[in-house]
Amino acid sequence: MVTALVVMIVASAVLAALDASSRASGRTKARSIAMTLAQSDQERLRAMPITELANVRASDANPTPVCDAGGANCVTYTVTSQADWVSDSNGIESCTTPNAGFDYLKITSTVIWPNMASGKPVTTRSMVTPVMGAVNGAVGNLAVKVVRADGVTGVPGVHVDLTGPSTQSDVTNSQGCVVWGALPAGNGYTVAVDEPGFVNVQGVQAHSRPAGVVQDSLSTTTLLYDGKASADVSFYSVIGAVEWPGQKVDQVTLAQSQMQPVTREFGTALAYQGSVTLDSLFPFANGSPGGPYRIYAGGCAGADPTQQTPPDPDLRSLPGLSPGSALAGGYRLQIPAFDFKVAVNGTPSPTAKTKIVATTPGCDNPTPASVSPAGVVATGADTGRPAAPGFPYGTYDVCAEADVAGVKRHQTVVAAVLKALPSAQLTAGSGAAAGTINVTASSPSGGC
User: What predicted TM-score, i.e. pTM, was given to this entire model?
Assistant: First the structure.
């Protein structure tokens, strides 16, 4: 029995060794076939006319079955080919060097096959130098560079499509660059990208722009395209030394000079809420062309702090946006506050109500923005203030109503201006001293 056990152990070891040897032999054979196919593809590419070779791309994969004698035990090898215009100055595709596309072509053949395991694909490269006159006629090169929000850093791995007089497709290299050569010169081209998780400056995933090709030159088109970001924005106001959290607005506007139009609005008009989500944001930040987003409450041009008279110098910026991430902790946006109280016969009233209607020029459909009891805020000294004093920049009609000796009466201040942080006192006017609306027995009867 011991002898039999020893024989079994020795036999198992021998079989394992034979199996390992067979696998190694199979890998060597497969790799040898792959090298032959790569060399054959190199010869095929070299035989192509330069005008055809110029835009061979790796997306053109070529499945090639290889069988044993008799047609059995077939293995499908996949051969991909790539031709890249490169320059003598840096040896890689260039999106910025003038006429960089006319030096030579780097051709690459890559072969993969099933059951490679951890083995590497077989890759063969060589150079093709166009002979004099090989590229002639009204043709030129087109470079497309896809860059991040900083306007400089290239984005690799982005699919770029070209349509027009010539139709092409490629993926950006390590520089965020694609170069197509020997294209018919002229206009009418469109370059387009549509990469999941990425957006253009307007927050749109599918992005395209027109392009042209200049004869005997390298024309360059740059696309700002980066991982989309997001942020949740909440609102607060300040009156004196007291912070008023939980303010509500219907819309938020972002402004940035690289956008066309230069503003984007978020939220729903007249749907007042304590938080607005800003999604699909191009991640403009410090260092980006035009800098970070300016942010302000309101969804119309009249609410822009820069449009006030005089312009408000205390502008807010949305900080810390990173490609592909949400703004940590959200963002708390301070909005201007009306600093006034409602009084009845000169005494602050905690039961009065206020109605504030936007009349800002350039803002459509002015609608009551607030109808609320005045309430008590922080201390007894604050009785008579409206419960929600925070509003976007602009002009408003402010009405206060209260019971005076059992009769409901109201007092209105027309075109009150809200234009400064941290707060703006109510402009003195009919029935209003600075910071106070006084409802008296002589005020008009009825509510606001």
Answer: 0.75
